Amino acid sequence: MSIEIQNVLMPHSGDPELLDQIISACREGRHIIVCSDSDTYLDAICYASYKIIRATDGLTPRRLYPAVTEELLKTFNKAVDSLTIDEAIRSSSVTSRDILIIPEVRGFSASDWTILTKLLKTFVGANVSVLIFSSTRSVSEAAISDFVADLGVQLLYLPVLTATDLESIKEINEPHLQEKAQVLFSKLSKDFLGAVTDVEKGIELADIAVKRSGRVWSLLLVLMAILAVSSIVWFDKRFLDYVIGFVLFIRRQIILIWDWLTLSDFQIF
Prior knowledge:
It contains eleven helices and five strands. It is an alpha/beta fold and 269 residues long. The two termini are 46 Å apart.
C-alpha cells in the first residue's frame, strides 16, 4: 500500500491490496460497493478506507451516516456548496474529488437509491464518487442492482476469513491495539467460524446462572409459603417438624444447585 496508515487493523493479508484498488477507483472517479456478509469486516475496511482517503492528496472524505434521505441531500449539498449550478452540471477538469462514504445502507429505500443516482448523474461537475459498504445479500436487491447498472458501479467482495487469518489478528504486538484486536478477533470469529470466545462464554454463562438461580429461589419461596399456610391450617407438631425439615432439605439443594451453576467449566448443551 502506497500510503501508511496507523492504528488500523486489517483482518486479511490481501486487505492492503484491496485498499489500493479502492483508492485508485476513487481517484479515477469510479463508484464502488464493498460487499461482505460480515458487518464487522465491513466496518474495519470502512474505517481503514476513511483514514487512507483522508491522507490522500486530492481526495476529501464525506461520511454519510445515518443513510437516510435527509443526510444524503445535506452531505451532497456540502460537496456542491462552492459551485455554481453551471459548474456543478458540467464535466470538470479538476482532479480533486469528494468521496461520499456510506458505511451501511440498511436505511436506504428504493427512492434513496434513485435520488443518489440522479444526483451523481446530474451534478457531474461536483466530482463526487461514492464508496458504499453493503452486505452481499443486499446487492442483489432490485434498487441496488439498478444503481450498479446505471452508474457502472464496481463491486468488490471481501474474502471469507479462515481460522489462520483470524489467528494473525491476535498476534498484534502494539500494546495500544491489543484490546481492539481482541474485540475484532472475537466478532470475526462469530461471523466466520461461529465460535464464541472464552470471555463471551463466561459472560453468557454467568447471565444464565443468575437467571436460573432466580427461578429456583422463586420456586423455593412459593413452596415455603404453601407449607407455612398448610402448617397454620392443619397445625400439628409432627407436621411442623416435617415442614422445617423439608425447608432445610430444599436449602441444601439450592446450595448444591448454585455451586453447579457457577462452575467455571459448566457447559450448555
